[in-house]
Amino acid sequence: MNFDSSRPIYLQIIDYIKAQIIKGELKAGDKILSQRELAQKLKVNPNTVQRAYREMENYNLTETLRGQGTFIVASKDLKSQLKKEMAEDILKRFFMEVESLGYKDEEILDLVKQYQRQKWEGFK
């Protein structure tokens, strides 16, 4: 995993777990790695992972069962809810960055449309 220096690592770890849920790699009821295992896997400080796990519990994304581990919470619409939340977060950051360059709303939409056209033309 490559970390973005502009965002706190614990938030990126949360997004990493969310992405695994969206992709179907993790499902409701699945046990996730222990904090120590994930810290070793991602090569980050265990305290950072601990904070991410604490936040995921606060968001009702996971639950920790004493002596058993941490599990993805069973929720009917978890996958679609996470997908929508992550897309909104990405769009928010995108708009903030592009607006900081001086673009106005209509110009941003034109850029997005232009990019999309170029992307699809590349598949032809």
TrEMBL record:
It comes from Proteinivorax hydrogeniformans. Pfam families: GntR (PF00392). SMART domains: HTH_GNTR. The keyword Lipoprotein does not apply. InterPro entries: Tscrpt_reg_HTH_GntR, WH-like_DNA-bd_sf, WH_DNA-bd_sf. Residues 7-75 form the HTH gntR-type domain. This is GntR family transcriptional regulator. It comes from the Bacteria. Keywords: DNA-binding, Transcription, Transcription regulation. GO terms for molecular function: DNA binding; DNA-binding transcription factor activity.
